Amino acid sequence: MANARESELHYPLGETLPQPGEALDLAPGVRWVRMGLPFALDHINLWLLRDRIDGCEGWTIVDCGIASDDTRANWERVFAERLDGLPVLRVMATHFHPDHLGLAHWLTEKWDCRLWMSATDFNLARLASSSTVGMGGATAAAFFGSHGLTDPDSLEKIRARADYYPKMVPVVPNSYRRLMDGMEVEIGGRTWLCIAGYGHAPEHISLCCPDAEGGPLLISGDMVLPRISTNVSVVDVEPEADPLTLYLNSLARYLALPSDTLVLPSHGKPFTGLHERIDQLREHHDERLSEVMAACTAEPTHAAGLLGVLFKRKLDLHQTTFAMGEAIAHLNALWLEGDLVREQGDDGVYRFRPA
């Protein structure tokens, strides 16, 4: 959902964007790359950090883009024109989602370097690239059906999307180096702190450099985005999960960072106003939880029945799967807190009412 209070944030670069295949200097030793995506959310931001490992000068890549010919071609142009003749020394992934990990295998093979990411997301990616997780296949369709999505055409399309993840992440590297919460990584002579976040992905890693030249930096991944709220979904592999509570608790950890931190998000533009954005995201979810509670108080309600309450725009199938996951996440948060009761009807659908 678009941020109605976006004017409270500041975009230091204005409307300037790197074009595909280009890299824009953000700070000394930090470059911004932007790749296209085949969704309504049509881009991902990727980052180049000047680095030195074992005396070798080069670059660290943070996040990869999906596996596609266009993304590979744009990376090749970046390599030819924007690495200053230096190699890539390592690849980092904030989390396992396809737009962040899709080309990790290609990049690490091309540059003979190691992938760095959290253990939870690495192992889930290995599983997902040979099957699917959450957004396609028979189990996903049955799960969404149990939460009120009954349109036969939509369910058939979801069943047909069993290759949703493998198409964009066909191969995951065989080995990796583990990133963990609180770990300090030296990149180019500066220390970057790993901050684990939960709810959007199982073990999302953001990277913060408080003493970066020019001011503190946060590569926030998908945990803090300026214009849209981060997707927080329940999926079929963990149907009773409470990712929304995990996500909101994770946001509190970023409040310890300096207020003038330049946030480098995966979607949207680099911005300052981290503390304001966290307040906005908390307020957004408080409002959504109130709307869900009101709807369930009016009558027992399933997740599909909340789509029109939580999302005012028309949704395509891809957006509907994420919207269903979000609706279930808000219901589960209230249910597991004890505010709602969950009951499964004779039709197999879960409906929620006040406790």
Description of the structure:
With 355 residues, the chain is an alpha/beta fold. It has one domain: Metallo-beta-lactamase, Chain A. 32% of the residues lie in helices and 22% in strands. It contains eleven helices and 14 strands. The strands form three sheets. A seven-stranded mixed β-sheet has the order 1-2-3-4-5-6-7. A hairpin with a 5-residue loop joins strand 13 and strand 14. It is globular, with a radius of gyration of 20 Å.
Give the helix/strand class: alpha/beta
Helix content: 25-40%
How much of the sequence lies in strands comes to 15-25%
CATH architecture: 4-Layer Sandwich
Task: Please tally the helical runs, counting DSSP H or I stretches of 4 or more residues.
Answer: 11
Q: Give the number of domains.
A: 1
Outline, from the CA principal axes? globular
Summarize the structure.
With about 350 residues, the chain is α/β, with parallel strands linked by helices. The protein is built from eleven helices and 14 strands.
Per-chain topology:
Elements: E1 24-27, E2 30-36, E3 43-53, E4 56-62, H1 69-81, E5 88-92, H2 98-101, H3 104-111, E6 114-117, H4 119-128, H5 138-145, H6 152-159, H7 164-168, E7 177-178, E8 184-187, E9 190-197, E10 204-209, E11 217-221, H8 243-251, E12 262-265, H9 274-298, H10 307-310, H11 317-337, E13 340-344, E14 350-354
Parallel strand pairs: 4-5, 5-6, 6-7, 11-12
Antiparallel strand pairs: 1-2, 2-3, 3-4, 8-9, 9-10, 10-11, 13-14
Key descriptive features of the protein:
Metallo-beta-lactamase, Chain A; globular; seven-stranded mixed sheet; 14 strands; 355 residues; 22% strand; B_lactamase-like_C; 11 helices; hydrolase activity; alpha/beta
